Amino acid sequence: MAERSNSEEVKLLGMWASPFSRRIEIALTLKGVSYEFLEQDITNKSSLLLQLNPVHKMIPVLVHNGKPISESLVILEYIDETWRDNPILPQDPYERTMARFWSKFVDEQIYVTAMKVVGKTGKERDAVVEATRDLLMFLEKELVGKDFLGGKSLGFVDIVATLVAFWLMRTEEIVGVKVVPVEKFPEIHRWVKNLLGNDVIKKCIPPEDEHLKYIRARMEKLNIKSA
Amino acid sequence: MANEVILLDFWPSMFGMRTRIALREKGVEFEYREEDLRNKSPLLLQMNPIHKKIPVLIHNGKPVNESIIQVQYIDEVWSHKNPILPSDPYLRAQARFWADFIDKKLYDAQRKVWATKGEEQEAGKKDFIEILKTLESELGDKPYFSGDDFGYVDIALIGFYTWFPAYEKFANFSIESEVPKLIAWVKKCLQRESVAKSLPDPEKVTEFVSELRKKFVPE
Q1: pLDDT in tens, B117-147
Q2: A82 and B89 in contact by Cβ < 8 A?
Q3: Distance of alpha carbon B72 from alpha carbon B69, whole angstroms
Q4: What's the total number of domains in chain B?
């Protein structure tokens, strides 16, 4: 992949274990865009981060030629509109609309619901697992007959839904609660295998061992019992 | 191709108002269908099986869900007139950012203003005012959020105005005294035909909210 002009400055303020940060790296890498990654300590935010994202104070922030863009889905669209090689959103307006819908669904429904499992036990936890599974079933059905959510190749929703494939599913591994059992979600498991066959995904998702350690430490801090 | 456009909506919804405005900005003829949210139609359940919420835009039989996504769809499909998003990628990103901010911050904050009481309401009011001030600051001295032209963020935000009198009534404050520039922007937007035709009478919204509030705050 050709390198961009040297006059272009692309910086990403992110965090190595954040799904929202990693998805930006996937998109940039897919597009062959060189960038400088600035790891942020989210417990001690840098003055640069607070300056670049004064509203939400959250990573990721993409800085392109000095201009900051925040919110991972907004950043992904910006990347797709700015660097047009290897488009990640469909060209057709209706298909593009559906990609936006499913991406919002992943972040605002699946993620928000799954996160509620933190601190819960017994029947309360079971209820969250059930609610999460109900939502995942929509994704399961969307995958029927496709290698990727983007169709035959990696697309916008695949990049966004790495959150499910590598964060949600790794977290369940640590917590010991089956949220995505293969017998209920065979399409999702097939899709994860396809993702793992993609070079950009393999390069950009957090290394499994380190990530599992990080999740375990975080869960212990949150007093979640490990299996 | 016959352009069949149906909008499943509920008259006081600030989200439905967005889609109404966007369609009118583009001069698109559409059939408005009022939904009874306590007795949702089979069409709504079929067209939005995940969220079961309005507004649903149905274009030639195909559903588009989520108001802010609908606005983008309308902008892309009927791209010949009154562009809603700027053409520059950075400005587009900024517009998307602020629309997202409104959806994530303003909606939840406003709910605490009319659906709670006591200390919770006071805290909610404070948050709400802070968010409006952030938006007012972003507007600055521009006539509209993206600059000279009415657009995406204006469409995302203006419908909330119809609920302002209800907030003021139940939380006992004046929004105009807190964010005068924002109210000046409201008045400018209301002069637009697409907006004027799409927004309900704030008094009727206040009546609606009064009834709604009884469910949340028993007297």
Answers
A1: 898 898 999 889 989 999 999 999 999 998 9
A2: yes
A3: 5
A4: 2
pLDDT tens, position by position, A4-36: 455 678 999 999 999 999 999 999 999 999 999
- CATH number for position B25: 3.40.30.10
**Is domain A93-222 classified as CATH 2.60.260.20?**
no
Report the alpha-carbon distance of residue B77 to residue B74 in Å, rounded.
Answer: 5
- Which chain B residues have any C-beta within 8 angstroms of a chain A C-beta? 50, 59, 62, 64-66, 69, 72-73, 76-77, 89-90, 92-94, 96-97, 100-101, 134
Q: Is B66 annotated as a binding residue?
A: yes
pLDDT level of residue B219 (50, 70, 90 thresholds): low
HSE, side-chain direction, 13 A CA sphere, residue A67: 13
| Confidence class for position A161, pLDDT limits 50, 70, 90 | very high
Asked if B101's CB is within 8 angstroms of A78's CB, the reply is no
To the nearest whole Å, the CA of B201 is away from the closest chain A CA by 31
Domain ranges of chain A: 10-82, 93-222
Range of the domain at B13: 5-78
Q: Which residues on B lie below 8 Å from A111 (Cβ)?
A: none
What whole-number distance in Å separates Cα of residue B99 and Cα of residue B122?
25
Amino acid identity at B86:
P
Q: What class does CATH assign to A10-82?
A: alpha beta
Do residues B73 and B139 share a domain? no
- Is the Cβ of A65 closer than 8 Å to some Cβ of chain B? no
In a shared domain, residues B144 and B189: yes
Across A168-202, b (16+ Cβ under 10 Å) vs e yields bbbbbbbbebebbeeeebebbbebbebbeebebbe
Residues of A in contact with B86 (CB under 8 A): none
